[in-house]
Amino acid sequence: MRKNFRQASRLIALVACLAILCALLPSLVSYAGVPEKKKVRVGWYESAYCYYDANGKRGGLAYEYQQRIAAYSNWEYEYVEGNWDELYHMLENGEIDLLSDVSYKRERAGQVLFPSMPMGSETYYMYIVAGNTKLDPSDISTFENATIGAVPDSLSKELLERWAQDNGLTIEIPDLSGYSIKESFDKLKNGELDAYIYYDAMGNDEVCLPVFNIGESDYYFAVNKERPDLLNDLNQAILRIRNEDPLYNQRLYERYIFPVSTSTFLTESELRWLQDNGPIRIGYRDDYLPFCTQKDGELYGAFADYIKYAGTCMKNGHIAFEPVAYDTTEDALNGLKNGEIDAVFPLFLSPSDCDETDILLTNPIMRTEVYATVGDRAKDIFSSDDTRVALLKGNINFDSFIKEKFPNWKITYYDTLEECYKSTVDGNTDCAMVASYRLNRTEALRRRYNLSLRTTAQDIPFSIAVNRSDIDLFSILNKTANVGTEHKVEGYFYKYYAGEDKITFRDFLKDNYKSVLLVLAVVLLVILILLLLALRSDKRANERQELISETEHDPVTGLYTRNYFFAYADRMFKEHPAEKRDAIVLNVEQFHMINALYGWEFGDRVLKTIGDEITAFLRENDGIACRAMADRFNIYCRHTDDYQVLFDRTQKKLDNIAENVVILLRMGVMPWQKDIGPVQLLDRARTACAMTKGGHHSRLMVFSEEMRKKELEEQRLLNDIRRGLENHEFKVYYQPKYDIQVDPPVLKSAEALIRWEHSELGMISPGVFINLFEKNNLIGLLDKYVWSEVARQIAAWKEKYGVSYPISVNLSRIDVFDPELEVVLDKITQDNGLSRDLLHLELTESAYTGNEDQIIKVIGGLRNKGFIIEMDDFGTGYSSLNLLTSMPIDILKLDMGFIRNIGKEEKDSRMVELILDIAKNLKLTVVAEGVETKVQLDFLKERGCDLVQGYYFSKALPADEFEKKAFI
Q1: Beta bridge partners of 716
Q2: Does residue 752 contact residue 734 with C-beta atoms inside 8 Å?
Q3: pLDDT for the residue 27
Q4: Are 725 and 785 in contact (CB under 8 A)?
Q5: What span, in angstroms and rounded, lies between the C-alpha atoms of 186 and 194?
Q6: 449 with 421: CB under 8 angstroms?
Q7: How far is the C-alpha of 123 from the C-alpha of 916, rounded, in Å?
Q8: Is the pLDDT of residue 346 over 80?
Q9: Coil, strand or helix at 808
Q10: What is residue 20's predicted lDDT score, i.e. its pLDDT?
Q11: DSSP conformation letters of 50-111
Q12: Helix, strand counts (H, E) of the chain
């Protein structure tokens, strides 16, 4: 008996321990889910890799790279400062854990740990002081017995020793231990060193210049050999960074490391060429701004600026140029072949054309975007196989461009640009070509022929051409091209592009003489009327004229500027507080797109049209107005009950401003209220105007307090969604679905429904936040959250009970057009060990309308992979019965609106019977939603409905309550 008592006591103790463990387990799991950050001691040395900016904030290539690694590795840094040499020894001794910019050396591999992939690749250069007369880069022997510095125990020192050995030189390498990079360069500048070896992070400056590339090497983050855990984290982080952005290292390099050029010195053979041949005779196409032309007997234009710069860009020699003008580029190229000149600019040829003509092209000096000019009824020239293009005779650049980029186009040559444009208008060709730098010069001609521009999305790189046999000349010009960066040269072109070939008043009169005469007549008439009115004006009109004459006006619309408007409106309110005045705000829908598509000039026409209509309205309603922002207009005027008049007449003017351009106006109104000033009135009118944006409601709205309250509430929910998802405030409820073709009905599956238990606002109805998130393109975040939660819950029940119930989840139109949809769903099911048929995907019937082919393709792909597809709310959308046969679905869900009227409306009952018959013929399972009465249940059962859900059986339940109903 005592033995039995002891066994019972042990059993009770065991049960008690298990109970305590179960109580503690959620806390332990929760604690374990937030791993503690690893402390990492990282070396910090002043360089392009690690530096403090003018505001004292950290920056640099290594710093930014380390921040990305920390995000993926849960690291927290403690920075240890010093020079690189000191920090490397600290890394060897285990005093720090991580150091950047460490080149791999065999002996280092036994002292520190290297990751599998480098930070990047760096090039080592020999730097000398500009003007150094002792060392001549063109004569390597002058470096004999030179004192050349390098970072101690570094790869740069090894490369220097190898370079000296390869070139048979004896050099002195002083010990620079303890000196920072800056201090070492100071030694170079004050003459203690003849040269210094450093990598390309130094860049070019006015004192220290790179003259030799002595080697290259990959560089790494190096890790304390006692911290292999950090090495594993580092490898995974770098691999993830590279997978996400294969060019990440290159982007950081371009952002932080200044480009180095070693081509600022001419070689002995290049200097000899200049001495023997004199100035470089370079041919160019005359009268071709912004490139080049003759002005007062001198070369003028961007090319003139470039050769002036190129003549002085070499450190050990001056390059003289002799420009030679030709009528066409083709003539200049013939001059090159005949020996009249040494080079040609600007030129673009394909590699095969260069080979055929024995020509070499330097690296591009600059690039220009290329546009096609087309008429009003132009076809799609880029997709057509028979596009005809008009080109100028002798323009080899465009000829080469078309043959390389659009080889199927048929070229027709004309003598003048005007003939090219006229051929496009007459239909003899489909387009002509123009470079971006020539847009300003050709604008008047394009306007005359009413031609528009289409981008080719291609550019032409312009280079200098030389004969293949002139290799020294090619080397000289290529060095000037490399030193003169494309951005610098493009600055020259924009300089002349902005100020070239302005339209003269005479040209304007010639093109528009009829309009000018009409305007002059109208102006004279207006002046006469104004003079008569001025003679008869009263004192009040004079006072108002004096006030208006002192104001600042918007130059586009003629309305007041914002600041003066508010000052004037405040004065009107203070002087006449009882006078009833309304506030109106007008805005143009997607005005920035109008500017982008049709240009600033057209956008200004739209603004001026609105300004003119507002001015006319104010003449009738005694008020003031301003252009407050780019496309927002404020009006403060006498109270009226008919705001629609202003809206309609202004919208009508916008409708007529141009054919085939849709311009939509939005208007918000705040009527007069006692003791409310113009600032508050306009703020509320702006809120009303904002409420008209998007959607299908009216584009004229009058402010109400409910509107302001709703706007604030919705904005708060939009601000809180991400925090709510992170804190799991969104709860998934499960509404059971029952098979009613067995007796008694049995639970077969469920539908997942979402609820938001807001931490401050409490339970929020889905009807409030679902439409809001859809309207603001945030519904995809919520859908992915629900999919993950449902999949996790199915897996948990399966592991606990060995049984799985399929659960339906919503799929929105935004999800369908997400290119990562299949990847996301596959990952969710795989991570939770589920077969795809356990996750039913519900798409509403209305979601199939618009882009049906694309939607059917995506849904069909998911269905082929094993996901079960349900069409939700069938009967409320726009699908035809014919379309139903082509939709890739497995289950049809009857909308509850039909079910609610069973037994009440014969039409709805017969519709349900019809849908059930169609579904049966199509071999589709049918689910009826919203079943609440036995009459509805019996009706559906008798007519073959498969599954039902609704309050008759159960409302939507939290996970724990559904678990009791389904499994216990």
Answers
A1: none
A2: yes
A3: 43
A4: yes
A5: 12
A6: yes
A7: 74
A8: yes
A9: strand
A10: 47
A11: SEE-TTS-EESHHHHHHHHHHHHHTEEEEEEES-HHHHHHHHHTTS-SEEEEEE--HHHHTT
A12: 36, 36
Provide the residue type at 656 as one letter.
N
| Per-position b or e across 237-269, b if 16+ CB within 10 A of its CB | bbeebeeeeeebbeebbeebbeebbbbbbbbee
192-196, 313-317, 835-839: least confidently modelled range: 313-317
Residues 6+ positions from 474 with CB-CB distance below 8 Å: 360, 362, 466
Q: What is the pLDDT of residues 351-364, one digit of tens each?
A: 878 878 888 888 88
Instruction: Give the mean pLDDT of 265-288.
Output: 85
Measured CA to CA, the distance from residue 547 to residue 553 in angstroms comes to 12
Instruction: Please state, rounded to an integer, the average pLDDT across all residues of the chain.
Output: 84
Between CA 682 and CA 686, with CA 684 as vertex, the angle to 5 degrees is: 70
The structure tokens listed for 283 are: 């041919």
- 409-450 pLDDT tens trace: 999 999 999 999 999 999 999 999 998 877 877 888 888 888
pLDDT digit string, tens, across residues 594-652: 887 788 889 899 999 999 999 999 988 889 999 988 889 999 999 888 888 889 989 99
Specify the pTM.
0.40
Q: What gap in Å lies between CA 667 and CA 587, rounded to an integer? A: 6
For the chain, what is the radius of gyration of the CA atoms? Answer: 39
What mean pLDDT comes out for the span 680-684? Answer: 88
The secondary structure of residue 699, as a DSSP letter, is S
Question: Which residue is associated with the tokens 């199915």?
Answer: 794
CA 523 to chain centre: 49
Sign of the alpha-carbon torsion through 896, 900, 906, 909: positive
Contacts of 531 (CB under 8 A, 6+ apart): none
Cβ atoms 683, 585 nearer than 8 A:
no
Q: Which helix or strand (DSSP H or E) is residue 569 part of? A: helix 562-575
Which string of DSSP letters, residue by residue, matches 379-401?
A: --TTT-SS-EEEEETT-HHHHHH
Look-up of token digits 């496309």: 631
What is the per-residue pLDDT for 717? 87
State the greatest distance between any 2 C-alpha atoms of the chain, in Å, as a whole number.
128
Amino acid letter at 118? P
Q: Which residue has the tokens 């500017």?
A: 595
Triad 220, 221, 223: Cα angle to 5°: 130
pLDDT per residue as tens digits for the range 768-794: 888 778 877 888 999 999 999 999 999
pLDDT (tens digit per residue) in 908-931: 888 889 889 988 988 999 999 999
Euclidean distance between CA atoms 758 and 750, whole angstroms:
25
- If we measure between CA atoms, which residue out of 747, 763, 683 comes closest to residue 967? 747
Q: What is the dihedral of CA 169, 170, 171, 172, to 10 degrees?
A: 170
Cα separation, 324 vs 339, in Å, equals: 12
pLDDT tens-digit profile of 241-251?
Answer: 888 788 788 77
Helix (H), strand (E) at residue 238: helix 228-244
- 141: which 2 tokens? 């022997």
Burial zone of 158 (CB within 10 Å; 0-12 exposed, 13-18 middle, 19+ buried): middle
Q: What is the pLDDT of residues 834-874, one digit of tens each?
A: 999 999 999 876 666 657 788 889 999 999 999 999 988 77
Integer Cα distance of 490 and 488 in angstroms: 5
Taking a C-beta distance cutoff of 8 angstroms, is the pair 386, 333 a contact? Answer: no
What is the C-alpha separation between 940 and 935, in angstroms, rounded?
9
Q: Please answer whether residues 263 and 205 qualify as being in contact, where contact means their C-beta atoms are separated by less than 8 angstroms.
A: no
For residue 290, whether the previous peptide bond is cis, meaning omega lies within 30 degrees of 0, is yes
Q: Residue 780 carries which side chain, given as an amino acid letter?
A: G
Scanning 865-958, the segments in alpha helix (DSSP H) are: 881-886, 896-900, 906-921, 934-942
747 versus 505: the higher-pLDDT residue is: 747
Round to whole Å and give the CA distance between 556 and 508.
21
